């Protein structure tokens, strides 16, 4: 059963009749191979239907319950909703999801047949309950090319549990996975077993749509610009060793490309997706498009702006062409209907651990070929697609094949502490577990993380040489926050400001924040913040700190003026309806109206409240 793409047009929702997806032709083969092999790797182009249909194939063969992981929260919710809608199921019953502190599964006394989770949630559950957390017949790890620390640790832990749970089936899925690497990783599975690889060929229905990739050489010809020294002007050098910063010329090139595409493509329903690495870069490109507001309808995809809301507002206009400016959040798992053109800056923002400053840092890097292919896959689904890569062909050849694993560039303090706090002894030794991941980190990096945790009294070394968590370490690990935010929250607790400390720590971790953030209008955003916190000028305070305190004040304002005021009405409604699980919608309309008047986001309050409750 293919999932249709929901297109919003003139205020009405219409369901397109989608062509069969490529994965459907291999349904029987996929089921057969998964039943016969403990580990199966499915490789298929983006848009082939594997994320939504493979779990349903297995479900139809009574292989439930099925656990599916996705690297991003948005994808977890979106795919679970899509499956629920396609099968006319109630979300949270037969199919559900679990992200962070929102668990929409196993509702109404029904065990969900398919559950989608982030790798972080699965890792926490395995550390708490060990193999008991894997009471599934099939585990599907999707988008395995996205190598977060949590994903690598989940894979290593599941591999270890596979040795004890012979009836468990593991399915790995990706468009650009390193097949050789995964086959080698599972070579010691035992009993002569091997990883079964299934390659999904292009569907005859989708192969009629062509994807054409153009590099700077072709772009220079199209725009009739000087083709000399292209790499030095737009890439700062001849290969991927060059600085990945974006200069003025790159923004201007993208702008010229947008105008060229619009002038030469008569069908304005064909949208343009532009990949840029940072919020600042999105803003710079957006500013250049402001004078063309009657020509382009610009949408922004960034973690500071609610992605769900942003996608819902992407209406197809009959008078304007849609331009989506996005960071790598749009690389995978997000389907944007009607994208015919992709402009790829070939850059990304990467977070890494600075061992000198002993802090996280961020910098621009060139993406891998694998990431470029993911971005390419955003088009060519319902029409011919063109991809403009803002590097030369030679420069592109010098890019890494795959993304550098996060486990090799990040501080391991949070993960090491989590592993040390794990209940099952089999996965509670960080040195042992981390050496069993796909790309083991340097032992010195593990030792540095252990020593750092000992210094802050989160761990202590026993006489036998084993590291055990202290009460403080267990407390740090129990908080649903990042490591640094957990440390900050406990410092506030020492000062007697528990509630405020937890709220501030949450706000340092999440996006979007309560105060409405209108993209591109910095002065207006600052005005909204000043309405809640401006300071008295006697104490110097940084912009980030002022923003955080402003949002803290906004949350407390909401608690006292709206939430507390309506609590009695809410409790009366619950008592009257006898249906507390449905009564959460009772205040939706009044809250939306109240928040709109005060320039606030109700979804942010819900998110913060859930995290705060789980911290109690």
Automatic annotation (TrEMBL):
Recorded superkingdom: Eukaryota
Keyword presence, Membrane: no
SUPFAM superfamilies for the chain: P-loop containing nucleoside triphosphate hydrolases
Database matches in SMART domains: DEXDc, HELICc
A Pfam family this chain is assigned to: DEAD
InterPro entries recorded: DEAD/DEAH_box_helicase_dom, Helicase_ATP-bd, Helicase_C-like, P-loop_NTPase
Annotated protein name in UniProt: Putative RNA helicase family protein
PROSITE patterns: HELICASE_ATP_BIND_1, HELICASE_CTER
Organism: Zea mays (Maize)
GO molecular function: ATP binding; DNA binding; helicase activity; hydrolase activity; zinc ion binding
Keywords associated with the record: ATP-binding, DNA-binding, Helicase, Hydrolase, Metal-binding, Nucleotide-binding, Repeat, Zinc, Zinc-finger
Taxonomic path: Eukaryota, Viridiplantae, Streptophyta, Embryophyta, Tracheophyta
């Amino acid at each position: 059963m293919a999932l249709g793409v929901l297109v919003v047009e003139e205020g009405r929702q219409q369901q397109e009749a989608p062509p069969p997806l490529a994965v459907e032709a291999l349904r029987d083969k996929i089921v057969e191979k998964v039943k016969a092999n403990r580990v199966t790797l499915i490789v298929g182009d983006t848009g082939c239907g594997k994320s939504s249909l493979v779990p349903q194939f297995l479900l139809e063969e009574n292989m439930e319950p099925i656990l599916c992981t996705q690297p991003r929260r948005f994808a977890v919710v979106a795919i679970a909703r899509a499956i629920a809608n396609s099968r006319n199921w109630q979300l949270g019953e037969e199919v559900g999801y679990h992200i962070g502190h929102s668990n929409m599964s196993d509702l109404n006394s029904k065990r969900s047949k398919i559950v989608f989770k982030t790798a972080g949630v699965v890792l926490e559950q395995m550390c708490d309950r060990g193999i008991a957390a894997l009471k599934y017949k099939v585990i599907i790890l999707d988008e395995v090319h996205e190598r977060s620390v949590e994903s690598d640790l989940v894979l290593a832990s599941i591999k270890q549990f596979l040795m004890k749970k012979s009836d468990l089936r593991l399915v790995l899925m990706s468009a650009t996975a390193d097949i050789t690497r995964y086959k080698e990783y599972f070579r010691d599975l035992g009993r002569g077993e091997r990883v079964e690889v299934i390659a999904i060929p292009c569907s005859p229905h989708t192969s009629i749509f062509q994807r054409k990739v153009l590099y700077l050489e072709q772009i220079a010809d199209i725009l009739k610009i000087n083709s000399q020294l292209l790499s030095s002007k737009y890439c700062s050098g001849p290969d991927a060793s060059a600085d990945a910063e974006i200069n003025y010329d790159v923004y201007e090139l993208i702008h010229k490309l947008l105008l060229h595409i619009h002038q030469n493509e008569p069908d304005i329903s064909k949208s343009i997706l532009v990949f840029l690495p940072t919020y600042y870069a999105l803003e710079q490109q957006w500013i250049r498009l402001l004078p063309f507001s009657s020509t382009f309808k610009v949408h922004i995809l960034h973690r500071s702006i609610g992605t769900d809301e942003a996608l819902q507002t992407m209406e197809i206009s009959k008078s304007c062409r849609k331009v989506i400016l996005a960071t790598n959040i749009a690389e995978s798992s997000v389907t944007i209907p009607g994208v015919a053109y992709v402009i790829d800056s070939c850059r990304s923002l990467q977070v890494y651990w600075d061992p000198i400053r002993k802090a996280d840092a961020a910098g621009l890097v060139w993406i891998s070929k694998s990431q470029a292919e993911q971005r390419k896959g955003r088009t060519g689904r319902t029409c011919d697609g063109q991809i403009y890569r803002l590097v030369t062909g030679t420069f592109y050849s010098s890019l890494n094949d795959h993304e550098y694993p996060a486990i090799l560039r990040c501080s391991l303090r949070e993960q090491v502490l989590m592993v040390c706090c794990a209940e099952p002894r089999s996965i509670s030794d960080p040195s042992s577990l981390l050496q069993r991941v796909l790309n083991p980190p340097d032992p010195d990096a593990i030792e540095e993380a252990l020593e750092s945790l000992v210094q802050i009294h989160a761990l202590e070394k026993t006489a036998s040489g084993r590291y055990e968590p202290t009460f403080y370490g267990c407390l740090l690990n129990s908080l649903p926050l990042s490591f640094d935010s957990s440390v900050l929250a406990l410092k506030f607790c020492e000062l007697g400001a528990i509630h405020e400390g937890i709220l501030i720590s949450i706000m340092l971790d999440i996006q979007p924040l309560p105060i409405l953030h209108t993209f591109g209008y910095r002065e207006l955003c600052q005005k909204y913040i000043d309405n809640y916190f401006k300071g008295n000028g006697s104490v110097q305070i940084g912009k980030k700190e002022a923003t955080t305190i402003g949002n803290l004040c906004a949350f407390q304002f909401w608690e006292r003026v709206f939430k507390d005021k309506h609590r009695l009405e809410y409790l009366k409604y619950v008592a009257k309806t006898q249906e507390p699980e449905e009564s959460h919608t009772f205040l939706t309309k009044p809250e939306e109206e109240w928040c709109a008047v005060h320039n606030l986001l109700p979804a942010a309050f819900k998110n913060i409240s859930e995290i705060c409750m789980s911290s109690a």
